[in-house]
Design a protein that fits this description.
- About 10% of the residues lie in helices and about 40% in strands.
- The protein is mainly beta.
- The two termini are about 45 Å apart.
- About 15% of the residues have low confidence.
């Protein structure tokens, strides 16, 4: 562990001290990363400017691309038709942008694998890429490249661990001050991660013949297109609880909701999430008198970012399903709760089982709960509920509604 940490720190310091400009990594519009690399010897095989170029694929930001689920009978999922809560200026102020936001800076890790390639990373070069240029050195041989976006916030929830092993970089979050009811291993819920993109290219061969490169006369460099496309490592869920026949019974919410059974971490190299389920906290807001299919309802809505389901790479699972509805099974139960405030001055936590919806929206999507308030009794005391149902002997009586 100490040796790995020392290697990473040395790589970061070396990147900061680098002076010799032998290659360049460029970000071109829209969000195309380009890596320009070269080697002094043998110059006979290189362009006279001593530069070659690697083009990375574009980052896709559209939710339609990631939420392209087959919902049966070869019908594609249209999340906009299911999303009644909407997204106004106040939502933007509280929650931020509805979808993904284009990154502007990146962390790059280069692993030299020798002239013949090797099984494990033994050294790493660390670089921070901002704007449209990056400088570094390359030797002839095989390389692995890992790129992920810089969060760009003074205070961030995501914790990056690249010292436990050089073979993988792990992103995770820490616990909040909010109590977690559903995961006995942890007493508190966890922060939601920021939006993360990552791409990993292995066994990139740079040889003296520039095999696989073509000459770009416009840029005056030799170019090779890589398969390294930066894809989401965190996934967006839009949740909405539609209160039918509320008639002023629920007057507001505490502002915090929780979703259980989600992965605590993800591997930036492989995209596979950890098998350590946690409850993730996020903010919600209540809107009154929203028209849904001709009915006036109240809606409690919010936006949640998670690492996704446990033990899976959601991006690698097909959304098409050979004509059948698509789903993923992480063998975890997913409960969503919200603390509602009632017109008699009491409050109560309502819990909804959304396991099947999460399984069908394994890359994120809209999670909808329809609640007929005529069937929900008003509690007589705060801090719990007036319901009889108890889930797994929790300390509080909590009404769990199967969805």
């Amino acid at each position: 562990m100490g040796m790995v940490h020392q290697l990473v720190q040395q790589a970061i310091h070396a990147g900061n001290r680098l002076r010799q400009v032998l290659c360049a990594l460029c970000v071109t519009v829209p969000m195309v990363l380009a890596l320009m690399s070269c080697e002094r010897e043998p110059v006979l095989y290189l362009h006279h400017d001593n530069q070659v170029n690697f083009d990375f694929a574009v980052i896709e930001l559209s939710l339609d691309v990631y939420w392209d689920y087959n919902i049966g009978f070869n019908t594609s999922y249209d999340w906009r038709t299911d999303w009644y809560y909407g997204w106004d200026d106040e939502d933007n102020r509280i929650f931020g942008h509805l979808g993904y936001v284009m990154p502007t800076a990146f962390d790059l890790r280069r692993y030299y694998m020798g002239e013949t390639g090797q099984d494990h990373h033994t050294q790493v070069d660390a670089y921070y890429v901002k704007g449209n240029s990056y400088t570094g050195e390359f030797r002839l041989g095989y390389w692995d490249l890992l790129v992920w976006n810089e969060i760009g916030q003074e205070v961030q929830s995501v914790v990056i661990d690249e010292t436990s092993s050089l073979d993988s970089v792990i992103a995770s979050t820490n616990q909040t001050m909010n109590q977690a009811r559903y995961n006995p291993r942890y007493t508190h819920s966890f922060n939601q991660p920021e939006e993360l993109f990552a791409g990993y290219e292995q066994n990139l061969n740079i040889d003296k013949n520039l095999k696989g490169f073509t000459y770009d006369s416009v840029r005056n460099v030799y170019v090779k297109q890589l398969n390294l496309q930066l894809e989401p490592r965190s996934y967006i869920y839009l949740t909405q609880i539609i209160l039918h026949h509320n008639h002023g019974r629920v007057t507001g919410v505490s502002g915090v909701s929780n979703l259980s059974g989600m992965a605590r971490s993800t591997n930036l190299n492989t995209g596979v999430t950890g098998n350590d389920p946690v409850t993730v906290s996020y903010d919600v807001r209540m809107k009154r008198d929203v028209t849904v299919k001709g009915e006036q309802v109240d809606i409690i809505g919010g936006r949640l970012v998670t690492f996704g389901l446990c033990g899976l790479n959601p991006g690698a699972i097909s959304t098409r399903g050979n004509g059948q509805p698509t789903r993923a099974n992480d063998r975890k139960r997913h409960l969503l709760d919200v603390d509602m405030q009632f017109n008699n001055g009491t409050d109560s936590t309502l819990v909804f089982d959304v396991t099947e919806q999460i399984a069908r929206r394994f890359r994120g999507g809209v999670i909808t709960i329809d609640l007929d308030m005529d069937t929900v009794p008003i509690p007589h005391r705060s801090g719990g509920s007036a319901f009889d149902a108890v889930v797994d002997d929790y300390d509080e009586e909590i009404h769990v509604i199967e969805m």
